[in-house]
Amino acid sequence: MESEGKCMKHIGEKDRKELEAKLADVFQENIDQLSTELREILLDDMVTAFENRLNVLNRADEKAEN
Question: 19 to each of 4, 12, 23, 24, 56, how far by Cα in Å?
Fold first, then answer.
């Protein structure tokens, strides 16, 4: 893996929308009661949290390799 220092990788817009759609499908029963706006906010937050977790783990892995 190429070292990026403090740069964080971001999920591309197309991939982000695809991941949101998959999460919406998986959690459909749990989020059906939410308004469309709240559902969109929740799904965006879930993707952001996943992206942030990946960045933290990648940085920890880079530090462990050094």
Answer: 24, 10, 6, 9, 19
